[in-house]
Write a structure and sequence with these properties.
Helix content is 4%, strand content 36%. The chain is mainly β and 382 residues long. Strands 18, 19, 20, 21 and 22 form a 5-stranded antiparallel sheet that branches. A 4-stranded antiparallel sheet has the order 1-25-24-23, with no helix packed on it. The longest helix has 8 residues. The radius of gyration is 18 Å and the shape is globular.
Length: 382
């Protein structure tokens, strides 16, 4: 047990907020599998601080015509799985041609407001067990399930019956969290929201407004900071993105209310302040964010780590933020890219080396869809 606690203490994570800043109508959550990929830069590999300024180049549009895309899970062959929040379907995208094949509809999903079929992730043993994990809103709660993906069956019938791994996460019209990711420790991390009930975030007995750490079977993970509890960190408003750096430190994005959205470095057992603190507070007992943004500049969703920086998708902000890091602190001012070019940005996932996958979110009821929306883009970043 001592060894497990020591290992857990090495993992750091960060906080998240809600879709459009803080108004009761905001919906946004985000980062997929937590898979880490090799960096193309020897300097990044050595852990040196990245340059203060970076770059983003859109290499191509991978797929178009997606409806309310939310979660993204890259497959080993270059193809992608994407979830539809409102249609409750999972679709496979051919990474070369953009051709779409629907795996099937996930039963039990009850889409409403910001809820529905949200984050997806592949099992750590996916190569052998072919299990796809999903976080969704049911008629009674938010929950995590896993399903067998059988490519041999006809399209539309390739998902097995969902096996409920974890249930009882508070649901609401807003702040349903939804991002799930397997960490470097092969444990399942789950970002939740307080469902509009701010009192839940500081209640360690509640699952709302938390980052949870579970075994793949849904039990509280060994080495968690509160014995017998799935809670890994608390005091969050609405966690939307989860990602690890190359040294296995966890970061999370979070919606603020009316003032500050946050990127947090997550430490096991720490309190991230909501609702007593929004953004930096410098109060004893609260973990301040790595950085913060006004809600109209961010409303952050998914995040990914690449080339020594965290890359954060903005919904209301309609831009991709680059946050260069030195350890768990920002090493320079955040830099915005793609501002207004593709509308609302929902999910960003590391694609290996200096590449990212980026998913737009203009068909979610808050955007202004254009021809081709929603889409997946491939980016090259530095």
């Amino acid at each position: 047990m001592t060894a497990l606690l020591a290992a857990a203490a090495l993992l750091l994570t960060a906080g998240c907020s809600s879709d459009d800043g803080g108004s009761p109508g905001r919906d946004d959550s985000a980062s997929p599998t937590g898979t880490r990929t090799p960096s193309s830069s020897p300097e990044r590999t050595a852990g040196q601080t990245p340059p203060a300024k970076g770059s983003v180049k859109v290499l191509r549009t991978v797929a178009t015509g997606l409806s309310t895309p939310w979660g993204l899970a890259p497959l080993g062959d270059g193809d992608l799985l994407v979830s539809s929040r409102d249609e409750a379907t999972i679709t496979r995208i051919d990474g070369r041609t953009g051709e779409k094949t629907e795996l099937g509809e996930v039963p039990g999903v009850s889409p409403s407001g910001e809820g529905g079929l949200l984050g997806i992730a592949l099992s750590p043993e996916y190569a052998s067990d072919r299990m796809v994990y999903a976080y969704f809103t049911s008629a009674s709660d938010n929950r995590v399930v896993r399903m067998l993906y059988d490519e041999r069956k006809p399209p539309g019938e390739q998902l097995g019956a969902p096996d409920t791994v974890f249930r009882g996460i508070p649901k609401g019209v807003i702040h349903n969290g939804g991002r799930i990711a397997f960490g470097p420790d092969r444990m399942l991390y789950v970002g939740t929201g307080e469902s509009g009930d701010t009192g839940l975030s500081q209640d360690r007995d509640s699952l709302g407004g938390k980052i949870l750490r579970l075994t793949p079977e849904g039990e509280p993970a060994p080495g968690n900071p509160f014995p017998g509890s799935p809670v890994y960190s608390y005091g969050h408003r609405n966690v939307q993105g989860l990602a690890w750096d190359r040294r296995q430190r966890l970061f999370a994005s979070e919606f603020g209310q009316n003032t500050w959205d946050e990127l947090n470095a997550i430490a096991p057992g720490d309190n991230y302040g909501w609702p007593e603190a929004e953004g930096r507070s410098e109060e004893d007992g609260f973990h301040d964010p790595v950085d913060q943004w006004s809600t109209d500049e961010a409303s952050p969703s998914g995040i990914a780590h690449a080339e020594g920086s965290v890359w954060m998708a903005g919904l209301r902000g309609q831009r991709l933020w680059r946050i260069p890091l030195k350890g768990t602190e920002a090493s320079a001012d955040p830099q915005a890219f793609l501002e207004g070019e593709y509308g609302r940005l929902r999910t960003v996932v590391a694609a290996g080396d200096d590449k990212l996958w980026l998913v737009t979110s203009n068909t979610d009821g808050r955007g202004d869809p254009e021809d081709g929306d929603d889409r997946i883009l491939e980016l090259q970043v530095s």
